């Protein structure tokens, strides 16, 4: 092993000597390339006062290596105890999107203020309802209007029982017109309902199982 | 106290158009309550206070409150700004196209073959649609927002639709009749919330459907009996207030006690000062 290194060193030093005139103009004389010296122990540049001046990654907290393919997992559901409710879903729905969004933002900010832990805040897909009216003369129905129902969910991880009546009272007193408010427990089914169905995958699984 | 597991809260509140009952429509999924487990060996510390639970039943506002002058001016200004910044909608674009086509038709050099296929749009102009909509809007009669005669009737639950009202009942306390939040004495083996529900049922003769907002009380009022009436076992009463929201106000039978629906500002006229101070803190004036 050693003689290989020595051979490398010999060739390298020859190159260094050939190139040194051009190198000297651009590089300061103190810096020597790593492979010129015999061992790692006496790297001369480490003695430079500004050695390692730009290092910052060692200051960050240790992160586990991120896996590329990570299936979206449900956040841990908190179960109800004697003094607090478990994971609750506060669902706001209505026809007017700005009002619904502003109200859900208000709820989120209120929770932050009151110290209620908010697990997640997401939107469910918009449902379109077609309003069809019968024509005055004749049996045909024609499309009168298309109403879109928007839904926003604020998921609370736990709610103190002593805080609950006050919290719900404030929400109800500030409820805007045309907006429906619903407070329910969070279930696994609610979480799974957010995903799109994949018919090909289900077909393949069924085939495998057969 | 008997320990019990915590019931879950499942409620749905709608704030849509005024229903026939003049209240917000509610859908309540009854919470799954576990039966109370009675501990055989329970050391009960007898306290000299008698416990009572009262229900603070509120009817939430049905219509929006009127805006103050500054709010109105700001609203108008914001609407105007948004209108000026907004883009034309589909309907308005159609109106413009139709008007333009009309003007081209009236012109001398009009070739209907060159017109792109606008089939039904040529038959049913956007302006006609707008006219039919205007007609239908004019024929719609909304209910009056404020009815002066109902506002003065304190016993009606439909008074003052823009404010939230609290239920008061006249109950016999000791020797005199006082106006209070409906209350009942706590009995062994039930939770305070059940006591509050019982209080509501007994006072209103099971006419009102209420949703209780939780198992924890929102306020307490302590009343010490006068020195003459105090004994070893009864020093006074503690009344715990529970919040509830009115769900359905169809009074089936006439109530057996006198009931009032009052706004927060009118509470002072009916309640005793010390009691009023404690109740005032529970009711949010929003």
UniProtKB/TrEMBL annotation, chain A:
PANTHER family recorded: LARGE RIBOSOMAL SUBUNIT PROTEIN ML48, MITOCHONDRIAL RIBOSOMAL PROTEIN L48
Lineage: Eukaryota, Metazoa, Chordata, Craniata, Vertebrata
Keyword Phosphoprotein annotated: no
Name of the protein this chain belongs to: Small ribosomal subunit protein uS10 domain-containing protein
InterPro entries: Ribosomal_mL48 (IPR027487), Ribosomal_uS10_dom (IPR027486), Ribosomal_uS10_dom_sf (IPR036838)
Domain of life of the organism encoding this protein: Eukaryota
Pfam families noted in UniProt: Ribosomal_S10 (PF00338)
Domain Small ribosomal subunit protein uS10 as annotated: residue spans: 89-184
Ribosomal protein found in the keyword field: yes
Keyword terms, alphabetized: Ribonucleoprotein, Ribosomal protein
TrEMBL record, chain B:
Family from the record: Belongs to the mitochondrion-specific ribosomal protein mL46 family.
Keyword DNA-binding: no
Classification via InterPro entries: NUDIX_hydrolase-like_dom_sf, Ribosomal_mL46, Ribosomal_mL46_N, Ribosomal_mL46_NUDIX
Source species of the chain: Xenotaenia resolanae
Pfam families (alphabetical): MRP-L46
Compartments (UniProt record): Mitochondrion
Coiled coil: none
Keywords recorded for this protein, A-Z: Mitochondrion, Ribonucleoprotein, Ribosomal protein, Transit peptide
Protein name (Swiss-Prot/TrEMBL): Large ribosomal subunit protein mL46
Limits of the Large ribosomal subunit protein mL46 N-terminal domain: 49-146
SUPFAM superfamilies referenced in this protein's UniProt entry, alphabetically: Nudix
Keyword Ribosomal protein part of the UniProt annotation: yes
Lineage, top ranks: Eukaryota, Metazoa, Chordata, Craniata, Vertebrata
Principal cellular location given in the protein's record: mitochondrion
PANTHER family tied to this protein: 39S RIBOSOMAL PROTEIN L46, MITOCHONDRIAL PRECURSOR-RELATED, LARGE RIBOSOMAL SUBUNIT PROTEIN ML46
């Amino acid at each position: 092993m050693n003689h290989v290194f020595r051979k490398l060193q010999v060739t390298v030093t020859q190159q260094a000597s050939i190139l040194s005139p051009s190198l000297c103009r651009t590089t300061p004389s103190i810096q020597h390339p790593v492979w010129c010296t015999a061992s790692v122990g006496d790297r001369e540049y480490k003695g430079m006062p500004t050695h390692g001046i730009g290092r910052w990654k060692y200051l960050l907290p240790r992160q586990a290596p991120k896996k590329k393919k990570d299936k979206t997992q449900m956040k841990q559901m908190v179960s109800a105890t004697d003094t607090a409710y478990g994971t609750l879903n506060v669902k706001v729905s209505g026809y007017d999107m700005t009002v619904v969004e502003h109200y859900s933002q208000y709820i989120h900010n209120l929770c932050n203020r009151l110290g209620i832990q908010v697990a997640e805040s997401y939107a469910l897909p918009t449902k379109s309802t077609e309003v069809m009216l019968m024509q005055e003369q004749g049996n045909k129905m024609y499309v009168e209007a298309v109403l879109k129902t928007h839904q926003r969910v604020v998921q609370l991880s736990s709610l103190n029982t002593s805080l609950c009546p006050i919290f719900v009272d404030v929400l109800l007193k500030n409820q805007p017109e045309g907006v429906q408010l619903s407070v329910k427990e969070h279930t696994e089914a609610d979480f799974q309902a957010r995903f799109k169905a994949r018919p090909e995958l289900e077909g393949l699984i069924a085939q495998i199982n057969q | 106290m008997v320990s019990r597991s915590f019931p879950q809260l499942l409620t749905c509140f709608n704030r849509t158009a005024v229903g026939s009952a003049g209240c917000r429509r509610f859908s309540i999924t009854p919470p799954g309550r576990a039966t109370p487990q009675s501990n055989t060996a329970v050391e009960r510390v007898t306290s000299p206070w008698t416990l009572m639970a009262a229900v603070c039943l509120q009817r939430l506002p049905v219509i929006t409150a009127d805006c103050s002058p500054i709010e109105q001016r700001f609203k108008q200004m914001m609407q105007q700004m948004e209108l000026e910044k907004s883009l034309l909608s589909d309907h308005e674009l159609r109106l413009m196209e139709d008007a333009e086509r009309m003007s081209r038709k009236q012109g001398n050099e009009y070739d209907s073959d060159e017109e792109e296929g606008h089939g039904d749009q040529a038959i049913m102009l956007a302006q006609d649609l707008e006219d039919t909509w205007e007609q239908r809007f004019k024929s719609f009669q909304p209910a009056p927002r404020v009815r002066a005669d109902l506002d003065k009737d304190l016993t009606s639950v439909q008074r003052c639709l823009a404010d939230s009202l609290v239920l008061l009942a006249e109950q016999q306390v000791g020797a005199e009749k006082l106006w209070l939040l409906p209350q009942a004495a706590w009995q062994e083996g039930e939770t305070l919330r059940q006591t509050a529900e019982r209080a509501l049922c007994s006072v209103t003769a099971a006419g009102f459907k209420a949703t209780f907002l939780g198992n924890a009380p929102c306020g307490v009022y302590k009343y010490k009996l006068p020195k003459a009436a105090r004994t070893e076992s009864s020093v006074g009463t503690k009344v715990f207030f529970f919040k509830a929201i009115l769900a359905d106000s169809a009074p089936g039978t006439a109530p057996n006690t006198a009931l009032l629906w009052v706004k927060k500002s009118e509470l002072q006229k009916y309640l005793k000062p010390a009691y009023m101070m404690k109740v005032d803190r529970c009711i949010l004036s929003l």
